[in-house]
Specification:
Helix 1 crosses helix 2 and helix 3 packs parallel to helix 4. The chain has 10 helices and 11 strands. The protein is an alpha+beta fold and about 325 residues long.
Length: about 325
C-alpha cells in the first residue's frame, strides 16, 4: 500500500492518540515511525503499531525521572513512557553533554516497547559532528550460541560517524531477524529463510509461528554474533539497571545512547576528511563479478528516504494496513 506521507502522519497520530500523551509527544513518536518506513526499515515503522507491544498501548505508569547524573552521564527512569520518545530525549542529552565535555552516555530503563531503529538516534548525533553509538535490549527471543533457550533480545546496535558529506551509519540487529520481522512474516503467510530460527525443541524451522514460540538465532549463527548480542544485552540490561535474559513481553526494555567528540583524539575536521577519504577508497575499489556498485551501510535507507520525500509517498505492508483498519 502506497500512502501520502501527510496522510500516514495523520493516521499514525490518530492511532497514538489513545496513549494519553500530548500531541507534541505523539508527533515525536510518529515522525520516528514514518522515518523508519521512509527508510525501508519496515519492521521498525508502522508495523510497531501492531504485534505484541503496539506503541499506542504504551501508557505512562509514572513520571520521567533522572535517577543518576554526572557531567558525562545520565540514567533515565522512563516511567513507562514509549521508548522512542524517551530515547530521543536521551539522544539530546548525550549530544549536549558530549559537546560540552567530549563524551556522554545516557541510559534509559523502565520502558515497555522497542525504541525502533538505532540509526535514527546515531544519525542525529553524527549531524552534530559527534560519533554516535546506540543499542537496546528487550524481551528475550534469541538463543545464545549452542543454546535453544531464548535469552537475548534481537539486540540492535547502531554506529554513526560524521564525514564531509552524509554521515556513515551502520545499524543492525544481532539476531538473524527482528521480532517485528517474524510478526510481519506470519501476517503475510511467508516462510522464513533457512538457518535463522528454531522451534521450542531446538529443531530448525522456517515457520514464523514456530520461531516465535522457539527462538531466532544470532545473525551469523556463530559465537561471534552471539557474543555481540551478549554485549548489547549487558549494555542495555545490567549497565542501565534494566532486566536481562527475560522473555516476558510486558517486562522492561533498556537502551543506551553514547556520543563521542572526535576532538578528544584528533581534530574533528581531520577526522571528517579522513573518514570521507576512507569511504571514497572503499567505493572506488574493484568490484566482484556481477556487482554494479559497492554500497556502504546506510546508503540504501538514505536513498529510500530521498525517493519518499521526492514522491511524497511511502509504502507500507498491506497486512499491516489491514490490521490497523486502513484498508
Amino acid at each position: 500500500m502506497k500512502i501520502a506521507i501527510k496522510d500516514l502522519r495523520s493516521k499514525v497520530l490518530t492511532a497514538l492518540s489513545q496513549n494519553g500523551l500530548t500531541e507534541e509527544q505523539n508527533l515525536c513518536i510518529a515522525e520516528q515511525v514514518i522515518w523508519a518506513d521512509m527508510s525501508g526499515i519496515k519492521p521498525m515503522g508502522v508495523a510497531k503499531l501492531t504485534g505484541t507491544e503496539p506503541l499506542q498501548n504504551m501508557k505512562p505508569t509514572g513520571p520521567i525521572t533522572i535517577e543518576r547524573e554526572t557531567k558525562l552521564s545520565q540514567l533515565i527512569d522512563a516511567g513507562g513512557y514509549p521508548a522512542p520518545l524517551i530515547c530521543q530525549q536521551a539522544t539530546d542529552v548525550a549530544i549536549r553533554k558530549a559537546e560540552e565535555h567530549g563524551f556522554a552516555m545516557v541510559g534509559v530503563r523502565n520502558t515497555f516497547s522497542s525504541n525502533l531503529a538505532q540509526a535514527f538516534y546515531v544519525e542525529k548525533i553524527a549531524s552534530k559532528d559527534l560519533i554516535g553509538i546506540a543499542m537496546a535490549r528487550g524481551p528475550a527471543s534469541t538463543a545464545p550460541f549452542e543454546s535453544i533457550d531464548p535469552l537475548f533480545a534481537t539486540n540492535p546496535i547502531g554506529f554513526s560517524f560524521p564525514t564531509n558529506g552524509e554521515p556513515l551509519v551502520f545499524d543492525m540487529t544481532t539476531a538473524a531477524m527482528t521480532w517485528s520481522g517474524l510478526i510481519l512474516a506470519k501476517a503475510n503467510g511467508e516462510t522464513l529463510p533457512p538457518n535463522i530460527a528454531i522451534d521450542p525443541e531446538g529443531s530448525p524451522t522456517t515457520d514464523p509461528k514456530a520461531a516465535m514460540a522457539g527462538a531466532t538465532l544470532p545473525f551469523d549463527g556463530s559465537y561471534k554474533g552471539s557474543g555481540l548480542g551478549l554485549i548489547v544485552e549487558t549494555f542495555g540490561g545490567p549497565l542501565v539497571g534494566s532486566l536481562y535474559c527475560d522473555p516476558a513481553l510486558d517486562h522492561e526494555y533498556g537502551s543506551l545512547i553514547m556520543a563521542i567528540d572526535p576532538n578528544l583524539l584528533v581534530d574533528v575536521a581531520d577526522f571528517k576528511s579522513h573518514s570521507s577519504d576512507m569511504i571514497q577508497k572503499i567505493k572506488s575499489s574493484r568490484k566482484r563479478p556481477g556487482v554494479d556498485e559497492i554500497r556502504l551501510p546506510g546508503e540504501r535507507a538514505r536513498k529510500s528516504r530521498k525517493q519518499a520525500m521526492e514522491s511524497g509517498l511511502v509504502e507500507i505492508d498491506d497486512s499491516v494496513a489491514h490490521e490497523l483498519g486502513w484498508l
